[in-house]
Task: structure prediction
Amino acid sequence: MKPILAAVALALSVSPAFAEEHGHHWTYSGETGPTHWGKMEKENEACGLGKHQSPIDISTKQAKVSDLPAIKFDYQPSPLKIIDNGHTVQVNYAPGSSIDVGGARYELVQFHFHKPSEEKVDGKRYDMVAHLVHKDSSGKLAVVAVPLNRGAGNKVIEALWANLPKEKGHEKEAAGVTINAADLLPAKHGYYAFEGSLTTPPCSEGVRWMVLKESSTISGKELAAFGKLYPMNARPAQALNGREVLSSK
Result:
């Protein structure tokens, strides 16, 4: 497994018991919150010292309008495999679904949620965000961020919440239930692009980020259900440090 893929697997799939046995259990507040992540473990140094960290606050005025390639989504139905990993609700996706961006193909590995959205646009957060994590054949990661705002219900999220595991750290395969990540996407796929990092420890850099401009919806009931598990699991916006943010036409 490539180093960065190993990092994302650890960061997003580790159970609380594993985290506490092998090091400090990071959180989103207090002495184990984001401002301390970089000092909790040596492998987390990028959380504090990295210069290309995510998430960011996207300025629509400063983003450079560019001829970015369209994101070509090729998502297929997948058996539902879901885990509450102690930091978020995550869905591990079956092989065979991908995106193509300018000839670069990335396979969908998993997606998970943050409340509120980690990304800001002109200083404002969305109610939630879904991060769809992909990897290419060399292990390089690409994340598509789908903003979620309160509105109509979402059939994918409805299916997920109906099958939440009762225990943290244990993947549940829901018998007879299939989902399609395509149903999370808004109608239009314009996006902002920048180079960033994982938004959770070890905060590894070299991640290709694509934040969709248009949001999908989530019902108030669905939003509240996630909020009971994770009232707030969003890392603060990080400094750009000279990075260029591109905006599709």
About this structure: Residues 3-13 form the longest helix (11 residues). Residues 58 and 121 are 5 Å apart (CA to CA). The mean pLDDT is 92. The chain is about 20% helix and 35% strand.
